[in-house]
Structures are given as C-alpha cells and as structure tokens.
Amino acid sequence: MKCAPDHSRATSPAFAVKPRLIRQLFLPPLILLLTVSLGYAGYRASLYSGIRALSESGERQLELNGRAVESEINKFTFLPSLLELEGSVSTLLADPDAEGHRQAVNDYLEGLNRRSHSSAIYVLDTTGRVQASSNWRDANSYLGEDLSFRAYFQDAVRGQDGRFYGIGTTTGEPGYYLAHGLEEHGKIVGVAVVKVRMESLEERWQKARLEAFVSDENGIIILSSDPARRLKSVRPLTPEIKERLARSLQYYWFSLTELQPLERETLADGVERLSFPAAGSQREVSYLAQTRELKDTPWHFTLLTPLQDLRREAVIQGVLVAVAFGLVAFFLIAWNERRKVIATRLAAREALEEANSLLERRIAERTENLRASNDRLKSQIRERRQAEETLRRAQDELVQAGKLAAIGQMSTSIAHELNQPLAALRTLSGNTVRFLERGALDIASTNLVTMNQLIDRMGRITASLRSFARRGEDRGRASLAQAVDATLQVLAARIEGLGVQVHREYSDVQLPIGQTRLEQILGNLVGNALDAMADSPQPTLWLQGDRLDDGRYRLRVRDNGHGIDAQARAQLFEPFFTTKPGEQGLGLGLTLSASLAAAAGGSLGAEHPDEGGTAFVLTLPPLNPLPPTSPVEPS
Ligand code: ADP
What we know:
Blueprint: H1 13-74, H2 79-82, H3 87-94, H4 101-116, E1 120-125, E2 130-133, H5 151-157, E3 162-167, E4 174-184, E5 187-196, H6 199-207, E6 211-215, E7 221-224, E8 232-233, H7 239-248, E9 257-258, E10 263-268, E11 271-277, E12 284-293, E13 300-306, H8 308-438, H9 441-469, E14 478-479, H10 480-490, H11 492-498, E15 501-505, E16 510-511, H12 515-532, E17 540-547, E18 553-559, H13 566-569, H14 589-599, E19 603-607, E20 614-620
Parallel strand pairs: 8-9, 15-17
Antiparallel strand pairs: 1-2, 1-5, 3-4, 4-5, 6-7, 6-13, 10-11, 11-12, 12-13, 14-16, 17-18, 18-20, 19-20
Helix pairs in contact: 1-8, 3-4, 8-9, 10-12, 12-14
Adenosine-5'-diphosphate is lined by residues 524, 528-529, 532, 559, 561-564, 568, 572, 577-580, 585-591, 614.
C-alpha cells in the first residue's frame, strides 16, 4: 500500500526533528519564565493598586490625625500672649528686683499652668533670664536661668512668635515651647514661654494602634508612636547641621542620627514606601508613609500604614495569576496536543482512504486485466480444443490411412489368401456338380463340407480385416483391469480346460486406447499363449504390468509354452504368418494387434525368455491429461 507523499516530510530527518526538539527544549523554561514573570507582574499590580487604595484611605486618616495634632498644638498658641494682660507680670518685668512681685507672678503662673495642663509657663526678661516660673517650687526650677540661647526666645524678643520643640536643658524633658514677646507701649519688655508636653498625642496614637510621627523644621522626629524613632532625622544630616543643632542645645545632648529605612521608594508627592527592620526579628516591615504639613508650624505629620497585609494579599494575587496562567498554558498545550493528535488521525484516515481508493482502483484494473486475460485464455482454450479436435481428426485420418495402407500392403497376401480358397472352391464346386450328376452323393457331400470350411475361413479373414479397418475406437480410454477380466472371461473355458495358472501383477491403469481394441489385442495375445501351452505340463500365464521412466505403461503377456523358433521369430508380425496347422491359424492376430497398438501411439514386441516360452510386450503412452473443463474465473 502506497500513501500520497507527505511534503512536510520531504526535508531531511534532522530538519524535520528540529522544531519539535526546539519546542520540547525551550517551551517548558519559557512557560516557567512567563509564569514567574506574570506572577511577579500580578504581584506588582496588586501591590500598587493596593497601595493606591490604601493611600486614598490613608489620605483621610492623614487629614484627620493631622488636624488632631494641629488642634493639640494650637490650643496653647494663645496662652503666652495671655500674660500680656496680667499686670503682675508687667510689674515684675518693669522692676525685676522689687520683692513680692515675683512670688505673685510665680503663683499666677503655677495656677495657670495647672489649669491649662501645660508643662510649664515662665517669663523671661529681655536678656533671656527667667524671672518667674510655674515650677518655682521644683528643685530644677527655671528661675534665674539664662535661656537667651534658645531660639524661641530670640524669635520672641524680636517680636516674632517663637515656636520650638526641644529638650529642656534644666529638666531634660522634651516639650513644645511657645514664646511670645510681651509688649508694653509698643515695646517688648519680656518674653512669656509655655512649655507643652505632647506625649499624650503619642499615647493616643499607641492606643489607636496608629503608626505616625511628627518631624520638626530640622527634620527631627519629635513625636512618634514608636519611641525608637524619636529624635531621629528624616533627612540626611550634614556635619554642619549637626554642629548647629548641638550648639543650640535644642535637643539637649542627645546624639542625632538619621532614620535609615532599609528601603525607600517615592510613590508620589508626600507618599513614600518605607521598609524598616521589624523589632526583634530579621524580617522587615514595609509602610506606606504619607506626609503633610501641619498648619501654623514648620512641622510635618507623617502617617505610616503597614503594607504587610497588602503584601501578603499581593503575593496571593501573584500566585493566583501565576497559577491561572499555568493552568491556561497547560490547557492550551493540552488543547494543541489534542488538535495535533486529531489532525494526525485525520491525515492518517485520509491517507488510508486514499490508499483504499488506490487499492480499489488497482483491484478494478487487475480484475479488468484478469477478465481480459481470462477471455484470452478462453479463446486460447477454444482454439486449442479446436486444434486438438483437428489434430485428433488428422490423427484418426492418419491412423485410418495407416490401417488402409497396412491393408493395402497386405492386399497381395490377402488376394493370395482369398484366391487360394476361391480356386479351391471353383474346382470343388465343378467336381461336386459332376459327382452329383454321377450320383456320387458321398463325395459330393464331403466336397460341400470342404467348401463350407473354405467359405468360413474367407469370412473370418474379411471379418478380421473389416474389424481392423473400422473407424473409431483406435483412441480412447480403456481400463486395463476391465480389459483383462473380459479377455479371461471369454477364454475361461480354454483356460480351465488346459488347467492354466494365471498370475496377474498389474495395476488398474487407464490407457489411451479404445476398450474393445485393447480387448482385441489381449484376446489375440492370450489366445496365442494358450495355443502355445496346449502341451505344456504346467501351463502358466503371467500378466505383468509396470510403468516405465518415460511415463509409458508396459504389459508383458508371458507364457511357458513351446516358444518360437528363430526362423519364425523374423516373420511373427507378417500378415498370414502362422505355424498353426489347418484352419486353426489365420496369421493375422499379431499383425493386426501390432497395427492397433501403433494406432494408439504404442507398440507391440516379442521377447523370448531364456527359461523358455514367449513374452509379448504391449507398450502404450501415458494417458493425455484431460483438458480443463471450465475456464478460469476471475478472482
Ligand atoms: P495365428 O495365431 O493365426 O497363427 P498369429 O499372427 O496370431 O496368427 O500368430 C502367428 C504365429 O506366431 C503363430 O502361428 C505362432 O507360430 C506364433 N506364435 C504366436 N504366439 C505364440 C506364442 N505365444 N508361442 C509360440 N508361438 C506363437
């Protein structure tokens, strides 16, 4: 079965394998890479959309908490200016050395401080020395201290509002200092300062689990929900800045360091992503840091929103995206493989159908050829049969012609054989007439008997010749066994009379001669043998058949009779040769038998065994195979 050529396979095998190999080699890493990339992209997208959502909600939180911080700060703004209204303060500042005034101011400030929940309230003269203070009772009271180096004093004494966050040099406590220049008749006579502790804000943030810090104008974190971040700088500190701040003692002697996040990413104006090491662990904590300015101060409020949950969610989203892509890729590959399998099956089916139709076409062609050759064969068979028929007829004609020729050859002998009795008959009949006229009836009767015998002999001669010359039966199909049986049956009386022992050693073969012809030959041969054994003490007849190498069948008819002398052997097959006395032999048996055998394509010969007797050998050709009865049918 031949399939249609597949052009896709026309290239060399190495090239045919290559794309598949490339697919198998590069597809899995590519899919893996895409899965990881998409997963990462999903993670990033989820993280950023989460951050955006978070920053929107954080914006509101920032505003809310920023305002809370502002209100906390601003609620003390008016307090220092209140002291301007207090007469005792003016009196004290006008005459700091006068006794009694200071104590009155101290008491006033103490009471005011208690009521306003501030940390301390004190009054400085224009030189920066503390003239009165709410904490006059404390051991570390500010009274008498020179705070002229403080920036808030310097601002306030110049008529500006002094806002300052710092650590008290006396108490070491941090606080928000609000200073106001106290004016009298348009002239600054002193400075009122309120120190506010803002830890309550930090406590509030901690309670609300809010992560936030406030950084001052120097970028130093002054308030923080996480104490660890306090007094850290949110901006890089140059050595000059550090020195300036140290000199101002704003942060007392605390060493100022930078708040150094592990990672810092600016997302928008005032929005950053910061990562800090988590307390007590190696892990880092990421925050969304949103910063806004605090009104009326140079400070900034920063709200930190943890991104941990967001990150976890983003990781889950990324994993989901990766898994979804992996599944899609898997289904696509599976679908593609299935499509290929179906395509291959379809191609195979088409190839099969193509091959089937080709096969059918070929079968039809072959059948047509077979039919044609069958027809040719039939006509050849017909021709052969006709030729055989013609041949057979020609052979019959030939045989007939041969027989007639044989009779022609014998004609002299026949004429001689017939003339003799005819002459004898003429003489005898003439004599008989004369004897009858004389009345010699006995002699006439004897002559008539002799004449009768002569006529019989002539009748037998013509009968033999007529039988020989008759058409047909020269060829045909004879059963040897049947012919022998028939012959022995005809001669049974003589066989029994002589007490002949018959040995039959032949097979029942079919021979190419007419049945009657074969029986005629056998009758002659067996009859002669019986004649020859008439005086034998133990007459025995052998009928022995065998097949020769060339396929011919040979039948030997042997007897243990008197045999044939040398002289007679040469004449055996001559017509009318006989050694039999009187009317017993015609001398035609062997001649005619040999002619019949020759007509059937065989031969008849004589052998003279050493042990005595005679053997006549009849050899006939193998029977022609029958022509086929039916023509070959196309398969
Ligand atoms: P006929 O039998 O009429 O004599 P045949 O042609 O049959 O004529 O035989 C010719 C002669 O051959 C016989 O006369 C006989 O002498 C001799 N002959 C034939 N057969 C045998 C035989 N079996 N044994 C001895 N002689 C035979």
